[in-house]
Amino acid sequence: MCSSERKPTEQDQASPLEAIGQSKEMLALLEKAITFSANAIVITDSKGVIRYVNPAFTQITGYTAEEAIGNTPAMLKSGQHSDAFYQDLWQTIMSGKVWRGEMTNRKKNGELYWEYMTIAPMRNEGGEITHFVAIKEDITWRKRAELELERWATTDPLTGIPNRRHFFRHGRVIFASARAQPGDSLVALMIDIDHFKLVNDRYGHAAGDNVLREVAFRLKRRLRPGDLLGRYGGEEFAVLLPRTDQVAGQTITERLRAAIADHPVLFPGGAVSLTVSIGAAYIDKDTVSLEGLLGRADQALYRAKHAGRNRVVFWGDDVVAEIEGEGRNPPPRFGGGEKTSRWRRAFDLRYRRPRFQIRSAP
Prior knowledge:
Elements: H1 10-35, E1 40-45, E2 50-53, H2 55-61, H3 65-68, H4 83-94, E3 99-106, E4 112-123, E5 129-138, H5 140-154, H6 164-180, E6 186-193, H7 196-203, H8 205-221, E7 228-233, E8 236-242, H9 246-261, E9 265-267, E10 270-273, E11 276-282, H10 290-306, E12 312-314, H11 317-325, E13 348-349, E14 357-359
Parallel strand pairs: 11-12
Antiparallel strand pairs: 1-2, 1-5, 3-4, 4-5, 6-8, 6-11, 7-8, 9-10, 10-14, 12-13
Helix pairs in contact: 7-8, 10-11
């Protein structure tokens, strides 16, 4: 034996035991960290069967460890995500990569909640994936705050229908879809409450607010799924009717007009019978923007107001000519600058009924 060789000391002989002790201590610390973590931690085997959940999982989801172990994470499935979403998740983790993202799940009591998840694959010494560890942060409070902010940003607070900003954002999608499909039809409506100022002047703004809410409610009830209604401003509303030909457009606009004219609006201290004027315009090959289409509907609305109110006027050459001939061409409120279509005539519906009537409640 070379003189440079050193005999093992008692300290050297004890080091493996100390290492084991330190490992046990570290495992105990890790166990406490997992147990007291505010984030839910789920461990599954390679097939996705749950083998462990920490107390936070039970606190968040309502499922006990006994209910979860032996089950799969599908027990939390909310139905809010597509099959492609889950396929992407599984393809990622089965390839050995870490998946991160937001997910909407469902608690035991049926309540939806949001969480930010990190799912990491665990490998054995041979490199095979044996388990998956998911760390799940409950972000429900944040998502609800975001949704509330989005609701306030896109919804008219008085009527509960889309505001002007959201109407244009969603409306441009509808318009682009109609433009992209040859032969697809689209009708734009501008609706104005006739003599609305008289309601505010006689009954006050609270009554006026009631009228606006009721008009929005009636319009919404008589529209189809897929139609878009928005409050344009003041006493004006805008509507888009996708996949609507001329016959259907005339039927729907008359239904909307009658929905307001046929029944008075009741409110504390009184009732008011009122009407609306509606201007309508169809998309055609010359219509290059949503603003241009609404501009045509706005011209038709202007014609309806000056023709006696409580009527529907469809945009056409005679509408433009009549407005310009009267020297009362309204200032443009929309961009667009579309060319005038030569084949469409205005369709004017006139009704013999009182334009406006206010009466006190008995």
